[in-house]
Amino acid sequence: MSQALTVRGIESLRPKDKSYTQRVDSGLYIRVSPAGEKRWLVRTSVSGKTQDFWLPKPYGNGSDGYLSLLQAKAESARIKSQAKLEIDERKRIRKEIDTRKREDETARRKNLTVQDLYDVWIKDGVNRKDSNSGLKRAFEKDVLPKVSKTLLKELSEQNIRKMYRDIIDRGVQRTAIVIARD
């Protein structure tokens, strides 16, 4: 069994014509690209199958965006301990990303504004002969300035009544009727 690499040993690895992988520690490897980038690789066995897992950050001094040898060893130990419990790190991360995406989408939907609804409606919900120019003109002049930033969940009858009153006060009752219909 070969000796584990030290920081000095990793630093001495030089790029070659093709990428190559060097063992650093038990189950921890470093891959050197022809450009000289050094990426961490953890090799584990989950349910009898050997799997390679690339750590998200390349070799470096441990500052933002890089993993030091010590950090990579700690991450490798964590992944290997999970593998012993037959937890696949790639599946765990994929599940975590999917959960985060669902949470973000739920939060986004909870915070939709009248402007968001208008944008979707004008793009996909209505198609008039004039390319919706009349609708756009009316809504951009009379509706959106009043309620565009209002969250849909907070839009109330009072908001809409105030908007209609402002239009009628300008003396354009027909516009209020057309906007109400639209």
Describe this protein's structure.
With 182 residues, the protein is an alpha+beta fold. The protein is 51% helix and 16% strand. It has helices at 7-11, 69-84, 89-110, 114-125, 133-147, 157-169, 173-181; strands at 20-25, 28-32, 38-46, 49-58. It has a 4-stranded antiparallel β-sheet, with helices on one face. Strand 3 and strand 4 (49-58) form a beta hairpin. Helix 6 (157-169) runs antiparallel to helix 7. The protein is elongated and about 90 Å long. The mean pLDDT is 87.
Arrangement of strands in the largest sheet: 1-2-3-4
Q: Gyration radius, to the nearest Å?
A: 30 Å
Q: What is the mean pLDDT? A: 87
Shape call: elongated
Number of strands: 4
Strand content: 15-25%
Which spans have pLDDT < 50 for at least 5 consecutive residues?
none
Q: What can be said about the biggest beta sheet?
A: 4 strands, antiparallel
Strand and helix order: HEEEEHHHHHH
